[in-house]
Amino acid sequence: MTQDSVQVTALPVRSGFGLPLLLLAALGLLGLSFLLAGQPAPAVAWPWLLSVVALLVVGAVGIRQSAQGENRTARILPAAATLILAVLAAEAVLRAYAIPTGLIPTPSKVAQSLWAARTVLLQDAYYTFVLEALLGFVIGTLAGLALALLAVRFRILERGVLPYAALLSSVPIVALAPVVIKAAGLGWPSKTIIVAITVLFPVVINAVRGLQSAQPMHLDLMHSYAASPAQTFREVRWPSALPFIFTALRVSSTLALINAIVAEFFGTEGHGLGFRIQIEVGRFGLDIVWAAIVVASVIGISFYLLISALERYVLRRN
Amino acid sequence: MTTLPSSPRPARRPSNLLPMLGVALAALLLYWPLMLWANSGQAARSLASGADLGCSTALACATQLRNPVIPAPGQFASGFRNLSVPPLAPTSAPYNALVTGGETLLGLALASVFGLVLATLLVRSRSFERATLPWLVASQTVPIVALAPMLAVLLGQYGVQGFVPKAIIAAYIAFFPIAIGMAQGLRSPDPLQLDLMRTYRASPAQVFGLLRIPASLPYLFTSLKVAATAALVGSIVAEISTISFSGLGKMLAENSRASDTVALWVIMIYGAALGIVLVAIIGGLERLVTRWRPPA
Q: Which residues contact residue A108 at a Cβ distance below 8 angstroms, ignoring those fewer than 6 apart?
């Protein structure tokens, strides 16, 4: 249905035109930025804005053309082109309107700061991601799985604890963070605990749901094969729970990093991306803030993709 | 991509009340020794440094610390009284919880509109999906807190102040689960139903309004529940990082700076209650709107 409508309304241009159009738009925007770099801020900004918009329209047509088909390029090129065109357009518009760096820094300025502050940012990323987000994620997942197994094994626990887990999963993390940090200290372990708590609830809820999602027919079949409970678990319950667990892990993977960063706003010993962002916002060093955001985003996306890849691999094997 | 579990309705089971009460009782029984254990270290340190707490042993002092790790029952009670009476004073927690709740609901409404538009585009156009979906996912890894002060300054230049910037920031983190859930819901009608619409010679708009939108409602509400918590986090964080004169976030920031742990615990409980109430409101709305589905 949707595929039909896309192909019917697509422009009657052969898909080979996608790449040249994209190149045209990108080079045009780049040229605008260079023209603007040579002079002080232009007196009238709207002609520049108009040409940026025009080039973006060309780019949009190019993206549309290059998104046709099922090959690898058609899947990756549109997303990459969107990012590149958006960054170039932002650069040109910010320069045309001469927006002060203290308000919104241009992408090129952010890139410079990213390179200049790379050692500090990487060290911050090590604290925030490896020590806080990743460790918390692993601890939370393991604890969640253990709790889910207990809950499925002992029904009384499921009926007593699970409603609380569902209830507590709607507690905002930021309300929890100050209390945990006051209790566990300013060092990184307090943030690890916060991440673990936030990862725990979705994992418990989804794992219990998944462990119970095994079809009664399959369970009956195992029963008639006189399979031991351990065999039933390994052959039926666990495989049917995996998709549910991975859904929770994927959602938690982005949450883990964000929560680590948010938790750092409530107190650190001077490390971490959240600390860096907070400090630099206060000093109007917004180029460093954006650089930290870029680092956090790259790590977050990589982590998400890693979990997704792991999911595909594990689910295919089962 | 991020597939939200599509709320399978469990079969009716015996009431959970009794086991839940049992767990609550166990937690209450554990609370006292846990509190003593958590506080006694700090009490011992204060005693060793020569502070006059009006008590002799660490264990006896554990219930009387000024900034306890876990407050004692009496401290909880007085903390609640201090922050809740009168309930609508600008410094009391219930009033600030209402402010934050209002911002969150406004943010959710904004996020729903935006999410619906995005989901429609995602379902209608594959090139749009390929061009933007990776970045929609990526946008969720951006710590919004960093954007909050900038957004507040930018919006302030155009005369938007107070309530609205927080709602916009709440909407920014809430739109993603809604857009993804809605996109999944709009795709959920099976080919048979779509064929039926075609036999009726329904226009695309009719297929959308009569089939796809109603089919997506259960997905919408499942994702709204996820989004509600996210939006609440968003509005609290926005209150912390922008200039604000009311809201739970502002109270958290103040008491965090003042190291008033009892107040922090009380505000945390209010925040937790607010989150639970918001999700319950959406659950009630769901039952109201999706009447045709079998009750849970």
A: A33, A91
CA distances from A115 to A108, A270, A291, A294 (A): 11, 21, 9, 12
* Structural domain boundaries in chain B: 93-289
- Considering only CB atoms, which chain A residues are within 8 Å of B4? 247, 251
Contact call for residues A203 and A141 (beta carbons, < 8 A):
yes
Q: pLDDT of A276-300, one tens digit each? A: 888 887 777 788 888 888 888 888 8
Q: Which pTM does this prediction carry?
A: 0.77
B-chain residues within 8 Å CB-CB of A209?
Answer: 5, 8
**Does the beta-carbon distance from A2 to B20 stay under 8 Å?**
no
Helices A72-96 and B126-139 pack at an angle, to 10 degrees, of: 60
Rounded Cα distance between B65 and A70, Å, is 66
Q: With a cut of 70, say whether residue B194 has pLDDT above it.
A: yes
Q: What distance in Å separates the CA atoms of residue B174 and residue B278, rounded to the nearest whole number? A: 13
Quick check: A51 contacting B, CB < 8 Å? Answer: no
R_g of chain A, CA atoms, integer Å: 25
Q: Which CATH number fits domain B93-289: 1.25.40.10, 3.40.50.1820, 1.10.3720.10, 1.10.10.10?
A: 1.10.3720.10
Q: Do B272 and A168 touch (CB under 8 A)?
A: yes
CA-nearest of B246, B230, B222 to B144 is B230
Q: Which two tokens stand for residue A104?
A: 């919104």
Neighbouring C-beta atoms of residue B111, cutoff 10 Å: 29
Cβ count near A312 (within 10 Å): 11
Instruction: Give the pLDDT mean for B202-222.
Output: 85
Q: Computed from CA positions of residues B163, B165, B171, B173, in that sequence, does the dihedral angle turn out positive or negative?
A: negative
Q: For residue B146, what are the contacts with CB-CB under 8 A and spacing of at least 6?
A: A277, A281, A289, A290, A292, A293
Of A68, A79, A206, the CB nearest to B135: A79
Nearest to B36 by CA among B54, B15, B20, B57: B57
Q: Please state, in angstroms and rounded to a whole number, the distance separating the CA atoms of residues A286 and A114.
A: 11
Sign of CA dihedral B115, B118, B120, B126: negative
Query: Is pLDDT above 90 for A26?
Result: no
Closest CA to A290 of B142, B273, B44: B142
CA-based nearest residue in chain A for residue B9 = A209
Rg of chain B over CA atoms, in angstroms?
Answer: 24
CB distance B123–A163 less than 8 Å?
A: no
Closest by CA position to A58, among listed A17, A87, A92, A96: A17
Domain definitions of chain A by residue range: 2-99, 115-317
Decide yes or no: CATH 1.10.1670.40 for domain A115-317: no
Tens-digit pLDDT profile for residues A205-227? 888 888 888 778 888 888 888 88
Pick from A67, A174, A299: which is nearest to B236 by CB? Answer: A174
DSSP code of residue A16:
G
Interface of A with B in 16-45 (CB under 8 A): none
Query: Which residue among A67, A82, A182 places its CB closest to the CB of B259?
Result: A182
Tell whether B41 is within 8 A of chain A (Cβ).
Answer: no
